[in-house]
Every structure is written in structure tokens, then in C-alpha cells.
Design brief:
Elements lengths: L1 H10 L20 H24 L3 H4 L8 H10 L1 H24 L4 H14 L5 H5 L5 H19 L1 H13 L3 H18 L3 H18 L10 H18 L7 H11 L8 H27 L14 H11 L5 H18 L1 H4 L3 H13 L15 H20 L1 H13 L7 H14 L7 H18 L4 H9 L13 H7 L6 H24 L1 H4 L12
Helix pairs in contact: 2-5, 4-5, 5-6, 5-19, 6-19, 8-13, 8-16, 8-18, 9-10, 9-15, 10-12, 10-14, 11-12, 11-24, 12-14, 13-22, 13-23, 14-25, 16-18, 19-22, 20-22, 21-22, 21-23, 21-25, 22-23
Length: about 550
């Protein structure tokens, strides 16, 4: 059987983009550690749920002060009484731990874990059936659906492929320029596509063919070119999403949470002005770290290894023919959507509503570009997101994050005189490195953004001074395969090891945290996000 697979792999054309579609990537064999974690996941989840939901209630859950609770949780407390409220918090903690254990160990598919969480929140009485099931209709869910419709339009018309190939052929003539070209491509696509998985699906065949051109092929022994091109694209796919509030549903969710706690709101332009230069700077640092420190290229790896390889890409580009009318219409739709997103402060129409209209136009008979059969919506990811939103709804009902952060502050002795920089470093650091343990950007946003809001209110600082820098760290989810869907997808390319991903990703995650600290002292202060900087040095 293995010989047959090896023969088929050898016969496959390494320059055929069709060989690198997501549905054709081979399933990667789990390591011994991953197998052990998966086997232990379900028993650990059951024990965690039973212990925390029914057998033992931490003291910090029993002795909370009602004044720290958000308004929604206060209303629940007044309605059900303190004993029932504590019981629901204990159940919420148990369900949350179930999600963390199952998502981290990958003992079950992530969508199945989400379904378990949803029904567990209903059966334990934390959420009503109406509220739990309604999370599938969350505005961010609809934004994701519309984004996949629009991404399908890019794929069907070939516009994304045309742009990517044109840019590589125009500017990617040598290895260094290839990597720099993908930075520009990722930033451009991030402005239009609100799903990192969709971006990964569009770009993967292109950079896999380029890897083959430069002599890096899966199964042939991992080379520094292969490591670098896949890991840099993984980094840039996520950092590109961080450039724009519409870059992912988690960004929009964080912006909505913050907007609900301040006068005005967090708009597209606000986020872009703050984060576009920050993220582009981190991408360039990522390029240097990969090319100079972790994965330096030998001289022979800096030039194409397959004769006529770039000509093959040119053939792919020429097969697209002249620019067609449907590509022009797709570009018009996307540019119009981007224009409305960029001017949301003026017209007040939400990003979801704008994408909704764009999706309708794209699907309209005769006028539109795609039909429903052309649309590729990964519903397992939608169900996964719904479970994370349910956890967020449960946190709002119980006030568990507020109770936990207040208990933590009491334990470490923080009081109203705590300097701003202590809170800033602590909250941004926890948000950044929490990505190592999480499989959901949405869940991290739902946990840590409310904590940052509550902390700012508790210590009488402007909400955006802590909550927005915390939100800016949502997209650092590229260290380990379970940290995000693109990370899981690109790990299957077999171009790098877990060790490669960790050392490069952890380094860039640390640079990401340091960047938010530096920007807090400089650029964020100019924009009025941080008062007098982080440390008040300038």
C-alpha cells in the first residue's frame, strides 16, 4: 500500500496546482504525543466537568461582589437568586473546561465539540434553548457566510488566481522577492476576504507550486525553502487579517464588544490606521527572522530548481486569457464593499450588512456572478463558531470572566492605585500567549476583551486603552497546528515539523506582543488609544 502511494506521488506533476487543492492533501499521521492527547481528552473533559460543575465550587465563585458583574449578569442574579447564580457559574466553568480540553487535545472534531458545548449549556440551565440555538444566527456568522460567498466569487472568476500569479510573475523573480511578494498579496486579499481559511485555500496551490519550483516537495525531506514559504504564508495570512477589523469575525466581535462599552464605536478606519503599519512591520520582521535566523537559504535554493518552472506559472497565468467581464464585475463588487467598510464612520452601516448586500448582488440571476452551487461554505467551521459564541453568551449571562479577574486581582494585591502599564502588560501578555492553548480566536475575543473592558472600568481607565490593544492581538494564532484552521490546514502540507512551527511562531508571537507595547508608547498614543503611552515615557 505504501509503495503504491509512493509511486502515485512520484508520478504526480509537482507543478500541477490541482494536486494541491485542500481536498487532495493527504491526511497527516498523528505523532505519538498527539495520539496520547486525543485518547486522554474525553476522560479529562468528563472529569473536569463533573468536578467543577457538581462536586467542588472554588471559593472565588462563592464570595464574589455583585458590583463587578456586567448588567446582563446582574439582571440574572436578581432574577434567580445568589445560590442558583453560583450554581450556573459553576456549570459554566465546567462547560468551558470541557471545551478547552477537547479543542486542545483534538479528541473530537471541533464542530462536534461545539455541538456538545451548546447542548451542555442548555441542559445545565446556563442558557435557554432560544438563546443557545440563536447563536447560529449571530451577525458575525452571517458575515462569515457572506465572506465565503464572496471568496467563492473570487475563485470562480479566477480573479484571485490572476492577481496572485501576476504579482508573483511580475515581482517574484528570485527567492527573496517571492517571499516579499506574498506579504503584499496577503495584505491585499485580507482587505476583501473576512475568512483566513478562505485565504489559505486560495493561496495554498500557488505557494506549493513555487515550493516545488525551488526544489521543496512534500515527502522529499523538508527544506528551508519549503519551511519558510509555508510558515511565512501562515504568519502573513493571520497578520494580514489583523490589519483590518473585517479581517476576521473575531476582530468584528471584539469591535462590537468594545463599541457596546463606549460612546461612538470602533470603525474600520480606526482599526486600519492603528494596525496596518503594525502588522506590515511584523510581516517584514517575520521575513528577516525566517530568512536570516531559522531557515536561511543555501545558494542553490535561491534559484529555481525545476527547469522552466516559472514558465509553467506563466502558462497558468496565460490560460486565464484576457480579463473577462465577470472578473471586472467581481472587482467592482469587492472595491465597493471595501469603500463602504472604509467609510463606516460616515454612514453607520455595519460590516455584516455591507457584506450581506454584496453577497446578494453576487448571487443575483443575470446581474450576479455565482450561483449557490458555486459557493463553498464550510459548515463545520460555522458550527465550530456557533459553539464559541455560545460560550460567549454564557459568560455574559454568568459574569464568570469578571468574577475570575476580580478574584485574581485580589489574590495578587492589585488595587485602584495600580499603574496603567502593569495592567497593560498583563492583559496584552495573557491575550497574546493564550493563543498557544486555544483553537478559537472567537473564544479568546469573548473571554479576554470583556475582561479588559471590566478591568478598565474597575480601575477607572478609558475602555479602549486596554480593550483595543487586547483585541489587536487576536490574530496571533500560528504557532501550533490546533491554534487556528489555517495552521491545521498548512501543517498537512508536510513542509515543516512541529519544532519548526513552534520556534518560528513563538518568536513572532513575542515580537507581536512587543510591537503592541511599543505602539502603546508611540503610535497608539498619537491616535488617542493609550493615555500618555504605556509607561508614560514620552
Amino acid at each position: 500500500m505504501n509503495d503504491a502511494r509512493d509511486t502515485a506521488a512520484a508520478a504526480a506533476d509537482p507543478l500541477d496546482m490541482g494536486e494541491y487543492r485542500i481536498d487532495r492533501l493527504p491526511a497527516r499521521q498523528r505523532s505519538a504525543t498527539e495520539v496520547w492527547m486525543a485518547r486522554a481528552g474525553i476522560p479529562l473533559a468528563i472529569v473536569a466537568f463533573v468536578v467543577f460543575a457538581y462536586l467542588w465550587t472554588p471559593q472565588w465563585l462563592l464570595g464574589f461582589d455583585a458590583e463587578i458583574l456586567p448588567d446582563q449578569a446582574v439582571a440574572v442574579l436578581e432574577e434567580v437568586g445568589r445560590d442558583e447564580f453560583v450554581r450556573r457559574n459553576a456549570a459554566m466553568l465546567g462547560v468551558f473546561l470541557v471545551g478547552m480540553v477537547l479543542w486542545t487535545t483534538v479528541a473530537l472534531p471541533n464542530y462536534l465539540t461545539s455541538l456538545i458545548l451548546i447542548i451542555a449549556l442548555v441542559l445545565t440551565g446556563v442558557l435557554s434553548e432560544r438563546e443557545a440555538y440563536a447563536q447560529l444566527g449571530h451577525p458575525i456568522m452571517w458575515l462569515n457566510i457572506m465572506s465565503f460567498i464572496l471568496a467563492s466569487m473570487l475563485v470562480k472568476t479566477g480573479l484571485a488566481k490572476r492577481y496572485t500569479l501576476w504579482f508573483i510573475l511580475r515581482f517574484g523573480r528570485r527567492a527573496p522577492s517571492v517571499f516579499l511578494s506574498f506579504i503584499v498579496i496577503n495584505v491585499t486579499l485580507s482587505a476583501f476576504i473576512s475568512a483566513t481559511t478562505a485565504k489559505a485555500a486560495i493561496l495554498l496551490p500557488v505557494f506549493m507550486v513555487i515550493a516545488a519550483i525551488y526544489g521543496a516537495r512534500p515527502g522529499d525531506g523538508q527544506s528551508n525553502f519549503g519551511r519558510s514559504i509555508v510558515l511565512q504564508n501562515l504568519l502573513n495570512i493571520n497578520l494580514g487579517a489583523g490589519c483590518f477589523v473585517t479581517g476576521s469575525g473575531a476582530n468584528l466581535l471584539a469591535a462590537a464588544l468594545i463599541s457596546g462599552a463606549i460612546t461612538g464605536g470602533v470603525f474600520f478606519a480606526d482599526w486600519m490606521i492603528a494596525m496596518l503599519p503594525t502588522m506590515v512591520g511584523l510581516m517584514l520582521i517575520g521575513y528577516v527572522v525566517a530568512m536570516r535566523i531559522y531557515f536561511p537559504l543555501e545558494r542553490r535554493q535561491r534559484a529555481p530548481q525545476i527547469e522552466g518552472g516559472m514558465d509553467r506559472l506563466r502558462e497558468e497565468y496565460e490560460k486565464l486569457g484576457p480579463v473577462r467581464w465577470d472578473e471586472i464585475r467581481a472587482a467592482i463588487i469587492f472595491i465597493t464593499i471595501l469603500a463602504f467598510w472604509s467609510t463606516d464612520r460616515l454612514h453607520g452601516v455595519s460590516a455584516t450588512a455591507v457584506a450581506f448586500v454584496g453577497g446578494i448582488v453576487a448571487l443575483l440571476p443575470r446581474v450576479g456572478i455565482v450561483n449557490w452551487n458555486d459557493v463553498d461554505i464550510p459548515w463545520h467551521l460555522m458550527l465550530f463558531s456557533a459553539g464559541a459564541y455560545c460560550l460567549g453568551a454564557g459568560f455574559a449571562e454568568t459574569g464568570l470572566p469578571n468574577i475570575g479577574v476580580a478574584a485574581f486581582f485580589d489574590a495578587v494585591g492589585l488595587d485602584q492605585n495600580t499603574p496603567f502599564w502593569v495592567l497593560y502588560l498583563m492583559l496584552t501578555g495573557v491575550m497574546c500567549y493564550s493563543a498557544l492553548l486555544s483553537q478559537s480566536k472567537t473564544m479568546r475575543a469573548m473571554i479576554f476583551v470583556p475582561i479588559a473592558i471590566g478591568t478598565a472600568e474597575l480601575f477607572d481607565y478609558p475602555v479602549i486603552s486596554l480593550a483595543l490593544p487586547v483585541a489587536f492581538l487576536i490574530e496571533h494564532v500560528y504557532v501550533l497546528p490546533f491554534n487556528s484552521k489555517p495552521a491545521a490546514l498548512l501543517y498537512e502540507t508536510d513542509h515543516y515539523s512541529l519544532t519548526d512551527a513552534f520556534k518560528y511562531g513563538f518568536t513572532m508571537m513575542t515580537f507581536g506582543w512587543l510591537a503592541v507595547i511599543l505602539m502603546g508608547e508611540t503610535w497608539f498614543r498619537v491616535l488617542g488609544i493609550t493615555p500618555n503611552g504605556v509607561f508614560g515615557l514620552f
